[in-house]
Amino acid sequence: MPRLDHAAFETPDPDATAAFYERVFGARIVKAEGHPVMAYVGNSGFAFHETGGPGDHVGVRVTEEEREKLKRRLDEGGVDWEERDHGIAKGVFFRDPDGRQLEAITYTTGDNPRRP
To answer: For residues 98 and 10, what is the distance between their CA atoms, to the nearest angstrom?
Structure first.
């Protein structure tokens, strides 16, 4: 069943932004080379990308089967989408009718390997 995974934002200083979330919310910070700085608050994450990254978006976690069905529904609805391989996950990026960017993300291990 799809569920919210993360909210992603671009920032000129991902480390400083994540540190703010750590101080204010008690977020657990995870850094991995080539990936955004993550700030986990409970079961949700904030992904802080450097400016020029994938753009602000909301990630919804889906299974591989759900991601494939979603791509078919997007095609049937005439919605443009792009699939990106993150190494640890694959994401389908698209926009809702109001222009908000969304990502349907499937982790290769079935769950986000950076979570505890």
So the answer is: 20
Dist. CA 53–CA 56, nearest whole Å: 9
d(CA 95, CA 105) in angstroms, rounded, equals 14
Higher per-residue confidence, 106 vs 112: 106
Task: Please name which of 57, 46, 61 lies closest in space to residue 3, comparing C-alpha atoms.
Answer: 61
**Residues 3-107, CATH architecture:** Roll (3.10)
Tell me the per-residue pLDDT of 49-106, one tens digit each, with 9 for 90 and over: 999 999 999 999 999 999 999 999 999 999 999 999 988 899 999 999 999 999 999 9
For residues 27 and 39, the answer to whether their CB atoms sit within 8 Å is: yes
Enter the tokens of residue 78.
Answer: 């005439």
Domain extents in the chain: 3-107
Please tell me the number of Cα atoms within 13 Å of 39 on its side-chain side: 20
Can you give the pTM of this predicted structure?
Answer: 0.84
